[in-house]
């Protein structure tokens, strides 16, 4: 028996040693040497690349055209232009977040990490644990001249791309034009407007007139909109923005505002009148798709490409159903709309250099190319003569890189390939490590309705009220605390709002309870926290 | 083996140590141990190996620092988990759905197996079995799509309910929080009743025919034969299945919840594991998720041990 006990303890000891060795502390490589040796300009000479192939970790969804970025044309174009060879590694689609954590835990990290969304509050933590490189000293040393130049021209981009503690940590995707910021649009049935002689609705009253007319005309569901913790369509017409925002430097939380209660009352009325989709809580794509394309929906809110674009091509012109974009709803007629869901110029998508890379300078050199003039065109359009050529934009007379037929024409494309797939093959328009170009957007959403929608949905005052991205960086230590408060709050808002609208609870007492519960769950503490962060940001 | 049996005196047992006996047994039954090695390795690598990850529940886990380097925070994650405003509600929801499933779903396959057994035409049995197995093989996403269609405001089930009760439904039945458990468990029964009955059908097949003959001679009708012969004969199978089922009392099918839940039925449909998915996984808060997972496992363990204990006291069937 003694022997048995001994061997068990020996085994346990071995297991503990093993686990410590296997999952030991991979702390940061401190005091690394920051020295820029590679001269400016591309392609990089062979003596500097030294036969190195940079490993790029990137999320990726296989398409009919390519099963990996390694098969893409854009990868080859970039290699040719920069003189740096690369190889892509992709996590399995659907498990990106787990794969990302696993990669951080492994000893074998790639050189470059590309992600669709960097979680800025955690960026400082990633730098401190040595997972990613602090780019600040490299920026100062001149390892990324193109990005630095852009940041000097646009100080607001510079500010927005830093972590809470003020360090550079990634090469962000930057939206190069205001038109790229919002893609959430309101659309109605043009044919009903024509039939009833109504004008395109702008205010809540006009929308209500439209719904009543649509109902009269036999439309089953005059309005189909999604509602969730991120989006509450029409809210801008009640002089409220979604989420956290500021008015005259006072931070507010949309769903805790007076106007939001007005919005709930209005939605409840629309629901009771049979105007709002009775199944608004079920936003299954196939259901909404059928609703719109069968002509059962009188109006909807959605994406310019994924919804409007899809529906436009799915609807048979002979059916008489005509969709068109309308302006974002306003409080008073003729006013500029206050709010529409909108993205930041400095997007959370981007690439960074891992903390363990042995070729940091080369990796930065490769990524910085995307911010040069030549690189911007390449990431957005591909290679001249192959995937694009210069042309003149008729509406404005501007010269622009026009995609070739291989991308735009259904006949020229390989079978089964959509325009979106070709854009991901010849260029990387989804999340370019570069400045996203409006010419991509305008060509990808080419129908007149979509272009009109893009004009309308970006014509709002949202920037006046938006909290700067950098002002929302919650320090890592407090992030958990805020998450612990906000998850139940969002859960409550989601459920109570739906119940109030659907008449499951009494409107008056329900609204009273709504305000009280948010207060009890500590929303005012969170607002105060964001106020504090915003004040620190402003006084910097 | 023969040698071991020969050891009878207590003093002899002490003399031959555990490892000596093991070595001896290894030599004799080499091939048996080799076969055993496969499942043992499987459990060691895939079931016991990852268990050290439960340590995350007591840390503020950071993937880069790993379990060796992340700071220890004691029971903080558990406190966060228990003090969440939605903990109680979601705990009750989990239990409600789970208990409803044990009470209503669990007996169904047994009844189904008994009914199948009473059919004389083999051909008819085959046809019934084949048809009823089919839903089990449909992917859950499609099944939930079907459920949604059936209970939509103009769906087949809604129409049926309307015509029986006389209530008009303006919206999907799923939007009624009170009906969520019924729809969830009911659709489970529809999908899996036949598949789960296989084990009982097999058990019924093993019942001695002479018992039925004896019962018939004693004047027992078909119903009495079922009650006094079939059911007692398959009772050990039923109890074993029940004990195993209690071992997952806290595990409600998360994917199905995810596919059926909406803002209006969340009040009764949101389970603990779904909430933790929302709060932990989507925010990469692995420590919280581990704490919740550990809590789940402990409860499940308590239930399975308790059921086994009760069963051992009340009947002769038990797992250990």
What does this structure look like?
The complex is a heterodimer of chains A (540) and B (320). Chain A has 23 helices and 13 strands. Chain A has 2 domains: 40-175 and 348-378, D-Maltodextrin-Binding Protein, domain 2; 184-341 and 464-538, Periplasmic binding protein-like II (D-Maltodextrin-Binding Protein, domain 2). In chain A, 44% of the residues lie in helices and 12% in strands. Chain A is globular, with a radius of gyration of 26 Å. In chain A, a hairpin with a 6-residue loop joins β11 and β12. Chain A has helices spanning 2-22, 46-49, 73-82, 96-105, 120-128, 136-141, 145-153, 155-160, 190-196, 204-216, 258-272, 285-293, 304-314, 360-368, 373-381, 405-408, 419-426, 438-444, 448-457, 462-465, 476-501, 507-520, 523-538, and strands at residues 53-58, 85-89, 112-115, 171-175, 184-189, 244-247, 250-253, 299-303, 323-326, 346-353, 388-392, 399-403, 435-436. By secondary structure, chain A is α/β, with parallel strands linked by helices. The model of chain A is unreliable at 1-5 and 7-30 (pLDDT under 50). With 320 residues, chain B is mainly alpha-helical. Chain B folds into 2 domains: 2-58, no CATH class; 76-136 and 175-314, MetI-like fold (Orthogonal Bundle), CATH 1.10.3720.10. Chain B is flat and about 70 Å long. Chain B starts with a helix and ends in a 6-residue tail after the last helix. The chains are: A alpha/beta (540), B mainly alpha (320). At the A-B interface, α1, α4, α5 and α21 of A face α5 and α17 of B.
Give the gist of this structure.
The complex is a heterodimer of chains A (540) and B (320). Chain A is an alpha/beta fold.
How is this fold's topology laid out?
The complex is a heterodimer of chains A (540) and B (320).
Chain A: H1 2-22, H2 46-49, E1 53-58, H3 73-82, E2 85-89, H4 96-105, E3 112-115, H5 120-128, H6 136-141, H7 145-153, H8 155-160, E4 171-175, E5 184-189, H9 190-196, H10 204-216, E6 244-247, E7 250-253, H11 258-272, H12 285-293, E8 299-303, H13 304-314, E9 323-326, E10 346-353, H14 360-368, H15 373-381, E11 388-392, E12 399-403, H16 405-408, H17 419-426, E13 435-436, H18 438-444, H19 448-457, H20 462-465, H21 476-501, H22 507-520, H23 523-538
Parallel strand pairs in A: 1-2, 1-3, 4-13
Antiparallel strand pairs in A: 3-10, 4-10, 5-8, 5-9, 6-7, 11-12
Chain B: H1 2-6, H2 10-15, H3 18-28, H4 30-48, H5 66-69, H6 76-82, H7 87-105, H8 107-118, H9 122-137, H10 140-150, H11 156-165, H12 180-205, H13 209-217, H14 222-246, H15 254-260, H16 266-269, H17 272-281, H18 286-314
């Amino acid at each position: 028996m003694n022997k048995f006990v001994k061997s068990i303890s020996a085994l346990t000891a071995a297991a503990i040693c093993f686990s410590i060795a296997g999952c030991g502390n991979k702390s940061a490589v401190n005091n690394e040497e920051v020295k820029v040796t590679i001269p400016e300009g591309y392609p990089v000479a062979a003596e500097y690349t030294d036969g190195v192939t940079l490993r790029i970790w990137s999320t990726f969804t296989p398409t009919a055209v390519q099963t990996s970025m390694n098969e893409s044309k854009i990868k080859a174009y970039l290699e040719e232009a920069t003189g740096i060879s690369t190889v892509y590694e992709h996590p399995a689609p659907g498990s990106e977040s787990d794969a990302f954590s696993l990669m951080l835990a492994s000893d074998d990290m790639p050189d470059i990490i590309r992600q669709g969304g960097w979680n800025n509050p955690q960026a400082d933590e990633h730098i401190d644990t040595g997972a990613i490189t602090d780019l600040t000293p490299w920026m100062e040393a001149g390892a990324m001249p193109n990005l630095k130049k852009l940041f000097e021209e646009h100080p607001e981009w510079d500010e927005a791309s830093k972590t809470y503690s003020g360090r550079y940590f990634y090469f962000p995707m930057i939206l190069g034009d205001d038109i790229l910021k919002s893609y959430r649009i309101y659309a109605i049935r043009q044919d009903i407007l024509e039939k009833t002689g109504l004008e395109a609705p702008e205010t809540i009253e006009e929308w209500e007139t439209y719904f009543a007319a649509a109902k009269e005309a036999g439309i089953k569901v005059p309005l189909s909109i999604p509602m969730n913790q991120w989006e509450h369509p029409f809210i801008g017409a009640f002089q409220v923005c979604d989420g956290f925002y500021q008015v005259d430097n006072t931070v507010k939380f949309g769903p805790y505002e007076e106007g939001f209660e007005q919005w709930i009352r209005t939605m409840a009325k629309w629901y009771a009148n049979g105007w709002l989709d009775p199944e608004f809580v079920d936003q299954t794509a196939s259901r909404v798709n059928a609703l719109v394309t069968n002509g059962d929906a009188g109006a909807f809110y959605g994406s310019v490409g994924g919804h409007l674009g899809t529906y436009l091509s799915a609807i048979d012109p002979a059916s008489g159903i005509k969709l068109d974009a309308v302006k974002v709803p306003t409080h008073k007629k003729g006013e500029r709309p206050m709010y529409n869901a909108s993205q930041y110029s400095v997007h959370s998508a981007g690439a960074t250099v891992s903390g363990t890379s042995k070729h940091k300078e080369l990796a930065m050199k490769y990524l910085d190319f995307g911010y040069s003039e030549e690189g911007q065109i390449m990431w957005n359009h591909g290679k001249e003569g192959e995937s694009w050529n210069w042309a003149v934009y008729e509406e404005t007379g501007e010269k622009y890189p026009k995609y070739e037929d291989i991308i735009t024409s259904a006949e020229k494309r390989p079978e089964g390939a959509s325009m979106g797939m070709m854009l991901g093959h010849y260029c990387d328009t989804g999340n370019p490590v570069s400045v996203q170009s409006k010419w991509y957007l305008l060509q990808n959403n080419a129908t007149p309705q979509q272009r009109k929608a893009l004009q309308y949905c970006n014509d709002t005052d949202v920037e006046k009220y938006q909290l700067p991205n950098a002002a929302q960086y919650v320090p890592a230590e407090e992030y958990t605390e805020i998450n612990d408060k906000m998850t139940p709050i969002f859960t409550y808002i989601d459920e109570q709002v739906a119940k109030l609208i659907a008449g499951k609870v009494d409107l008056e007492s329900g609204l009273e309870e709504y305000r009280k519960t948010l207060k009890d769950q500590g929303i005012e503490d969170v607002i105060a926290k964001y106020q504090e962060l915003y004040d620190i940001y402003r006084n910097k | 083996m023969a040698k071991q049996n020969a050891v009878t005196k207590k003093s002899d047992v002490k003399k031959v140590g555990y490892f000596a006996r093991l070595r001896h047994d290894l030599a004799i039954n080499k091939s048996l141990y080799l076969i055993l090695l496969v499942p043992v390795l499987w459990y060691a690598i895939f079931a016991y190996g990852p268990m050290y990850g439960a340590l995350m529940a007591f840390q503020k886990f950071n993937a880069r620092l790993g379990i060796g380097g992340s700071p220890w925070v004691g029971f903080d994650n558990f406190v966060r988990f228990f003090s969440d405003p939605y903990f109680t509600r979601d705990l009750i929801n989990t239990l409600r759905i789970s208990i409803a499933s044990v009470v209503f779903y669990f007996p169904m396959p047994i009844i189904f197996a008994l009914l199948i057994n009473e059919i004389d035409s083999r051909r008819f049995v085959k046809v019934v079995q084949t048809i009823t197995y089919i839903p089990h093989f449909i992917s859950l996403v499609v099944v939930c799509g079907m459920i949604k269609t059936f209970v939509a405001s103009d769906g087949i089930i809604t129409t049926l309910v309307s015509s029986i009760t006389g209530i008009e439904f303006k919206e999907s039945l799923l939007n009624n929080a009170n009906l969520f458990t019924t729809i969830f468990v009911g659709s489970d029964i529809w999908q899996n009743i036949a598949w789960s009955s296989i084990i009982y059908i097999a058990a019924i097949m093993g019942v001695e025919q002479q018992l039925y003959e004896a019962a018939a001679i004693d004047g027992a009708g078909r119903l009495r034969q079922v009650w006094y012969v079939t059911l007692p004969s398959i009772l050990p199978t039923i109890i074993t299945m029940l004990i195993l089922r209690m071992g997952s009392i806290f595990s409600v099918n998360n994917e199905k919840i995810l596919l059926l839940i909406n803002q209006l039925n969340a009040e009764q449909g949101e389970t603990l594991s779904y909430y933790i998915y929302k709060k932990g996984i989507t925010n990469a808060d692995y420590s919280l998720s581990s704490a919740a997972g550990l809590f789940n496992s402990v409860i499940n363990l308590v239930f399975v041990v308790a059921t086994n204990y009760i069963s051992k006291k009340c009947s002769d069937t038990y797992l250990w």
